[in-house]
Fold this sequence. Notes:
Blueprint: E1 2-7, H1 12-24, E2 27-33, E3 45-48, H2 54-61, E4 66-69, H3 80-91, E5 96-98, H4 114-128, E6 136-137, H5 143-151
Parallel strand pairs: 1-2, 1-4, 2-3, 4-5, 5-6
Amino acid sequence: MVKVAVAGGTGNVATELLRPAIASGNHEITILTRSMPNTRIPGVSYKVVDYASLPSLTLALSGLHTCLSFLLTHLDTHSLAQKSLIKACIAARLTRFAPSEWSLRNNNGCPSYANKDAIASYLSEVDAAGELGGLQASILAGIHRRITQWTGQTVFL
């Protein structure tokens, strides 16, 4: 069973994309959240985290395999939450990380893509410095194909 952390997992996109994985029973899903939601998805565990605290995030990610980020990048000033999440994934020795890339990033200077571009650059810098360890960072462009491979089911977005 693959143990998956989902940052920002209480939002609409994450909730919808996780349905097939939850239903399959092949994944142990842990939602990382800033506060406990009133309504919880059965069969999913929740951990309240502080994205500004590397120790909090690292502890929450310990023992997991993959982290999918659904953080709202336009609300993540200077990409601090997602950068902390990446550092914690490395510290916790996760195998896979997918940054919050649920729309296109294209380095065109568009303000709504600025944080996506910054995270792509940050991951390149961390990789070039040899600091990713065993972490594979995948940007989920072509998400339909990737989610289909991950869940074994067709997902239309």
